Amino acid sequence: MRKRKPKLKEIKADPRYNDVMVTRFVNNLMLEGKKSTAFKVFYDAMDIVKERTGEEEHEIWKKGLNNVIPQVEVRSRRIGGATFQIPTDIPANRKISIGMKWMIKFARQRGGKGMAEKLANEVMAASKGEGAAVKKKEDTHKMAESNRAFAHFRV
């Protein structure tokens, strides 16, 4: 087992919104190490959101992300030959990572022209409490709720 935890790398805030969360989101959005392309896609998506809603795009993105972030997840655990889905709370850092990854994943699966368009649509849907990413969160919560009887197996 490892003796000490590795040092967490400090993430710099993005240039437009001066927010570390945006940089984390862009890092998840990035493909093949193309960070500047990922930033361009994100900022284009935010411009589309501002254009369509007429509100502060950063606030809409934050609201959408908060609507996607899960509170609990189910983990498989084998006990006496049977596999149980055990609901567990998620650490804060992992909650945010999961929420971002879901939002990006379902934006990529959306129909539309260009990633910026798809991401903008997913962000707007998530801020209204709709969209595939929010549905995934609700499904995860339902699964945890239905398996609440096995919570005593938690480690």
3D architecture notes:
This protein has 155 residues and is mostly helical. 56% of the residues lie in helices and 10% in strands. It has a single domain, classed as Ribosomal protein S7/S5 (Ribosomal Protein S7, Orthogonal Bundle). The chain is built from 6 helices and 2 strands; from the N terminus they run αααββααα. Helix 4 crosses helix 6. The chain is globular and about 55 Å long. It starts with 19 loop residues before the first helix and ends in a 9-residue tail after the last helix.
Topology, element by element:
Blueprint: H1 20-29, H2 35-53, H3 57-68, E1 72-79, E2 82-89, H4 92-109, H5 115-127, H6 132-146
Antiparallel strand pairs: 1-2
Helix pairs in contact: 1-2, 1-4, 2-3, 2-5, 3-5, 4-5, 4-6
Which CATH top level class fits?
Mainly Alpha
> Strands of the largest sheet, in order across it?
1-2
Query: How many β-strand runs?
Result: 2
**Roughly how many Å apart are the termini?**
18 Å
- Low-confidence residue ranges: none
The Rg value, from CA coordinates, equals: 18 Å
